[in-house]
């Protein structure tokens, strides 16, 4: 049991009692209700639900800063893909641990990932104590032999993740995008998603170039094309980016209950564009937030996405009322939980105990009122305590699950292999 005593939670001072991996009670907890509970003094702290990052390529922490100021296709073809050819389970393991440390330190408790070498990723996630949905990133480049290999791999990894029997680590399918995956592969992904009851995580409509490629090949916009062969039917889908969309595509997204992972910083940095978030919100489409990988962000601090998503659309629409503070905060919490189908993203009785505490004694959090506003517009993301699945992962700024110094040392060593 863990008791967070007297924290500022859901608008007032209350206790939070955690039993097992769930929130047992919120309110006043009496002495008789706790046996041997570990007590965290929350007096000067606020408690928020752990943030949920819905689009990452977590081992890409090791690609931070290696290829800046480039457009997507050049970035992928000339820099990222050649370096990724050198990856192995060990490199990916250390890169993932580095990413987990960064996410925990900035208040993220769950991430939705798409990458390769999932055994290394899963091992690191398990050790770090984080919660993650892991998809094997499939790319067949319209080649039949590659397609068969990718499908085999995807199935192998779903079975592998399931065999871990760890409720914090869930499998998904990650076809990279309609410009790198054949129709046959995408159709197979839809059937596998139904067969294994796992979600699909895919890049959609990130750049004008890629949309042009899809249109030249198929005569249709990407969402229209995928919808034409039932890709969205009977499955839960999280689409990353969704920057350039036609009205017809938005209609499909609404009809098919698509979950959008909005990645404003990656989209700005790669000069991909700005997603029409207010328009999607008006249609009632579920908007969540993602950082994307550290090759295009270049960090995993989701508080930056919260702030950028709250201010960017005001500026673009010349309207300060689109994406209000709480709306942006919900993108990173409640909405993310909905997209990933986990009982988290809110501090509520019966919900998963994924809780972040922030010490209010920080210059940028004074005066101590209007906390929601501070979290969105003033905070820099350095949190103090992190509880995931009922376990204390960070306490007073110290990570308890991994040896940080060792990870930093290894990250440098792995980077040397990648750049050589
Ligand atoms: O923003 C992006 N758009 C397209 N591909 C990306 C982006 N960021 C990373 N990757 C690439 O996606 C694959 C994982 O399945 C990796 O090759 C990764 O480099
Ligand atoms: Zn991506």
Automatic annotation (TrEMBL):
Annotated cofactor note = Binds 1 zinc ion per subunit.
Keyword Zinc-finger on entry: no
GO MF term set: 5'-deoxyadenosine deaminase activity; 5'-methylthioadenosine deaminase activity; adenosine deaminase activity; metal ion binding; S-adenosylhomocysteine deaminase activity
One GO term under biological process is: S-adenosylmethionine biosynthetic process
Question: What keywords appear on the UniProt entry?
Answer: Hydrolase, Metal-binding, Zinc
Q: Where is the Amidohydrolase-related domain?
A: 46-393
**Matches recorded under PANTHER family:** AMIDOHYDROLASE-RELATED DOMAIN-CONTAINING PROTEIN, AMINOHYDROLASE SSNA-RELATED
Record's subunit section? Homotetramer.
What does the UniProt record say this protein does?
Catalyzes the deamination of three SAM-derived enzymatic products, namely 5'-deoxyadenosine, S-adenosyl-L-homocysteine, and 5'-methylthioadenosine, to produce the inosine analogs. Can also deaminate adenosine. The preferred substrate for this enzyme is 5'-deoxyadenosine, but all these substrates are efficiently deaminated. Likely functions in a S-adenosyl-L-methionine (SAM) recycling pathway from S-adenosyl-L-homocysteine (SAH) produced from SAM-dependent methylation reactions.
The protein here is known as 5'-deoxyadenosine deaminase
Species of provenance: Methanocaldococcus bathoardescens
Taxon lineage:
Archaea, Methanobacteriati, Methanobacteriota, Methanomada group, Methanococci
From the UniProt record, report the name of the gene that encodes this protein.
dadD
């Amino acid at each position: 049991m863990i008791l967070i005593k007297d924290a500022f939670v859901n608008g007032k001072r209350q206790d939070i009692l955690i039993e097992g991996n769930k929130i047992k009670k919120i309110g006043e907890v009496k002495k008789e209700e706790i046996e041997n509970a570990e007590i965290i003094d929350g007096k000067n702290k606020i408690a928020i639900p752990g943030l949920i990052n819905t689009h990452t390529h977590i081992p890409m922490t090791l690609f931070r800063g290696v290829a800046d100021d480039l457009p997507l296709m050049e970035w992928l073809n000339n820099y990222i893909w050649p370096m990724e050819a050198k990856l192995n389970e060990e490199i990916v393991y250390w890169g993932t641990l580095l990413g987990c440390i960064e996410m925990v330190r900035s208040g993220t408790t769950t991430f939705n990932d798409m990458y390769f070498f999932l055994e290394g990723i899963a091992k690191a996630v398990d050790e770090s104590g984080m919660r993650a949905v892991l998809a094997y990133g499939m790319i067949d480049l319209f080649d039949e032999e590659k397609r068969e290999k990718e499908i085999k791999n995807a199935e192998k990894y779903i079975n592998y993740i399931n065999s871990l029997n760890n409720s914090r680590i869930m499998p998904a399918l990650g076809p990279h995008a309609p410009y790198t995956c054949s129709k046959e592969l995408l159709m197979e992904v839809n059937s596998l998603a139904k067969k294994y009851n796992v979600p699909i995580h895919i890049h959609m409509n990130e750049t004008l170039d890629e949309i042009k490629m899809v249109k030249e090949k198929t005569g249709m916009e990407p969402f229209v094309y995928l919808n034409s062969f039932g890709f969205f039917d009977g499955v839960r889908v999280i689409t990353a980016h969704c920057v350039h969309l036609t009205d017809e595509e938005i209609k499909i997204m609404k009809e098919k209950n698509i979950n959008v992972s909005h990645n404003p910083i990656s989209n700005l940095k790669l000069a991909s564009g700005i997603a029409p978030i207010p328009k999607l919100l008006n249609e009632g489409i579920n908007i969540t937030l993602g950082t994307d990988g550290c090759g295009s962000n270049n960090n995993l601090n989701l508080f930056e996405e919260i702030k950028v998503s709250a201010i960017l659309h005001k500026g673009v629409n010349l309207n300060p009322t689109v994406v209000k503070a709480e709306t942006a905060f919900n993108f990173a919490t409640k909405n993310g939980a909905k997209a990933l189908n986990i009982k988290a993203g809110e501090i509520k009785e019966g919900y998963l105990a994924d809780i972040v505490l922030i010490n209010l004694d920080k210059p940028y959090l004074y005066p101590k009122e209007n906390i929601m506003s501070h979290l969105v517009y003033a905070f820099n993301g350095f949190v103090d305590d992190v509880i995931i699945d009922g376990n204390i992962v960070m306490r007073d700024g110290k990570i308890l699950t991994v040896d940080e110094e060792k990870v930093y040392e290894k990250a440098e060593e792995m980077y040397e292999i990648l750049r050589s």
